[in-house]
Amino acid sequence: MDYIKVTNNNIEKEHICCAISNNNDIQVSSKKAWLKDRFNDGLVFLKSTERGKCFIEYIPAENAWNPIVADGYMYIDCLWVAGSFKGHGYSTDLLNACIEDSKSKGKVGLCILSSTKKKPFLADPKYLKYKGFTVCDEADNGIQLWYLPFSENATKPEFKECAKHPHIEEKGYVLYYTNQCPFNAKYVPVLEEIAKERNIQFKAIKLETKEDAQNAPTPITTYAMFVDGDYLTNEQMNDKRFIKLLEK
After folding, report:
1. Which of 60, 102, 136, 196 has its CA 20 to 30 A from that of 42?
2. In the structure, what pLDDT confidence band is assigned to residue 22 with cuts at 50, 70 and 90?
3. H-helix segments, the chain
4. Is 184 found in the same domain as 114?
5. Is 210 found in the same domain as 139?
């Protein structure tokens, strides 16, 4: 398998794996715009040259859009290998490339979000354990921070206090999200319209800056749904899933 690093020089002609469509699609354009603004912060997007979901996205933890304290670490936004690409060792290729790159940049280790049991859009804890990662912190909602230190004396990363106890004071449905996930640009307005039609209290809070994300009341900032103050899910919803949730 051949891989290519997406940069500002080639992003317009390269597909971005997690949303494969043309550049006029709001999902693609929003994600590419988000990536362009992150490249200067050290973000790396490495993907298969083949068309499909086979990529890793990572960034120095100081610039990660998550409320974590992990100075000197590299934070993995996403490691996703799916479909026909699974079972060929491509995840290992991508992770090894991240490790090699991180070491060359003087990083002390890697960190990534997961959970006790596999959750949608989060790294598989079984895979992380197999690769030598261990849990270094856990929030009240079961979201865990895993890490792979490059030396025994590396300080453990941890969640900021604001994220350890995910809870908000607002009633109704409240969604925190960013354009890191390409599907949000398409489906968040859909959810807002459904809630309006059904007279459901719904508020979408788009985290526009790194500082906003790093001080959010949730470990997961890409997509975090609350209901009546309590954390509900990180699973992105389309219209059908949201309607099903409301009908419960």
Report:
1. 136
2. low
3. 26-38, 90-104, 125-130, 161-164, 184-197, 210-214, 239-247
4. no
5. no
